[in-house]
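Support request, please re-run this one:
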Amino acid sequence: MNRNQIYITFNGAAVVVAYFMLALSVWLAPVDLSTKGYWGMGVLLLTAALVNFVKLRIDEVVSDDVATKLEKARNEKLISEYVAKA
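Re-run finished. Output below.
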């Protein structure tokens, strides 16, 4: 098992434990069932928003990396063509 897999497994377990503890605290809260449902929907929507935000940021970073690599390759080709003419 490599370091990335250990890191992913650890973080996955931490998320599961956190959600379990949150669900338990909501279940044991002294409020109506409708309030518990409202809290649960809020947690799920917040989770979805965070996942989408992280995905967006990762996509931006990957896009910037690809653009940088293309620009670098283009510049190297121009330089090599210029040197070949000289």
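The longest helix spans residues 33-85. The helical segments are 3-28, 33-85.
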